[in-house]
């Protein structure tokens, strides 16, 4: 019963949200102690696709905590899946129909973590039969925790968030990400960049999709798009944006679902313009 649980009505069990917050906070604090201090850097799908023992340790910590509270729930974490888009899609598909599925990116922004660039987060989402009902994105360096519950709004530092008011692309601050996949995703992204840069107020690229989504939700960015992401990069952030009054679709404007890899998120006001510009530039898919 989602509603009972969301209302915290199940006595003797922590609410889903409390567990999500606790996991993100614990993992984030631990990651922070490892900044500039990791031991082993490996590559995954390409030379740009990085992973450290801290990514793996963070996922282990989160998984253990979640399964302690909810042993019958499913778990999908980036580090438990083979690299590459096919393996990610397959892993998601095999769990999509599960009643409760936790979708976790133990460090979103690993490249930043490795370089000491202060823009990385822990991202934790809970989906009920394929629909995200809780999303938490935690930035340990700023100690900012972004939280959304389906139908109950989105919050940062306990304060209700809402998206920004800009109503034209020309007045918008828009972010994108440069993908690790240089074959398919990067060329598309470059086309989008070429088309959008002259149309927006300015472009940012911080290197964490989940944090970009949280910033759209908080009204700090007017929009965000990126090609070639995975469910764990986007699940929590998608609910943050929606619950803050924004819009999330794929880059062609179709509704967001957990399988979306090419994402457009915005304050809603500029969404049509953003998607149209990407489509016109043949940068959408
Ligand atoms: P990560 O740090 O968890 O890997 C930056 O452009 C965004 O792309 C980040 O959210 C980053 O997440 C994600 N990313 C990096 N490598 C990726 C890959 N091989 N496939 C999909 N997303 C990736
Ligand atoms: Ca990651």
Q: Short summary of the structure?
A:
The protein is α+β, with helices and mostly antiparallel strands and 285 residues long. Helix content is 35%, strand content 24%.
Protein model, in words:
The chain is 35% helix and 24% strand. A hairpin with a 2-residue loop joins strand 5 and strand 6 (131-139). It has 285 residues and is an alpha+beta fold. The longest helix is centred in the first third of the chain and has 18 residues, at 16-33. The chain has a seven-stranded mixed β-sheet, with helices on both faces. Residues 1-11 have low confidence and may be disordered. It is built from nine helices and 14 strands. Bound molecules: adenosine-2'-monophosphate (2AM) and calcium ion.
Keywords:
5-stranded mixed sheet, 7-stranded mixed sheet, binds calcium ion, D-Maltodextrin-Binding Protein, domain 2, 2 domains, Fructose-1,6-Bisphosphatase, Chain A, domain 1, single chain, 285 residues, binds adenosine-2'-monophosphate
């Amino acid at each position: 019963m989602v509603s009972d649980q969301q209302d915290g009505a199940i006595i003797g069990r922590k609410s889903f949200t409390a567990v999500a917050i606790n996991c993100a906070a614990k993992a984030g604090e631990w990651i922070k102690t490892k900044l500039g201090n990791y031991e082993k850097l490996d590559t995954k799908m390409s030379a740009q696709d990085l992973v450290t023992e801290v990514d793996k340790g963070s996922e282990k910590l989160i998984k253990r905590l979640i399964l302690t509270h909810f042993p019958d729930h499913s778990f999908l974490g980036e580090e438990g899946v083979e690299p590459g888009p096919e393996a990610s899609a397959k892993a998601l598909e095999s769990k999509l129909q599960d009643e409760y599925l936790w979708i976790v990116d133990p460090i979103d922004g690993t490249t930043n973590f490795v370089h000491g660039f202060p823009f990385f987060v822990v991202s934790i989402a809970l989906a009920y039969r394929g629909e995200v009902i809780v999303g938490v994105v935690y930035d340990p360096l700023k100690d900012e925790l972004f939280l959304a519950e389906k139908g109950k709004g989105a919050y940062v530092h306990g304060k209700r968030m809402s998206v920004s008011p800009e109503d034209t692309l020309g007045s918008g601050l828009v972010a994108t990400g440069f993908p690790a996949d240089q074959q398919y995703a990067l060329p598309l992204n470059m086309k989008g960049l070429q088309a959008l840069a002259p149309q927006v107020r300015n472009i940012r690229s911080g290197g964490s999709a989940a944090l970009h989504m949280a910033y759209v939700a908080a009204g700090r960015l007017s929009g965000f798009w990126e090609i070639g992401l995975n469910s764990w990069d986007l699940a929590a952030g998608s609910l943050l944006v929606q619950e803050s009054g924004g819009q999330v679709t794929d880059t062609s404007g179709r509704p967001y679902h957990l399988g979306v890899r090419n994402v457009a998120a915005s304050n809603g006001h500029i969404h049509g313009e953003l998607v149209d510009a990407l489509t016109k530039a043949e940068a959408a898919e």
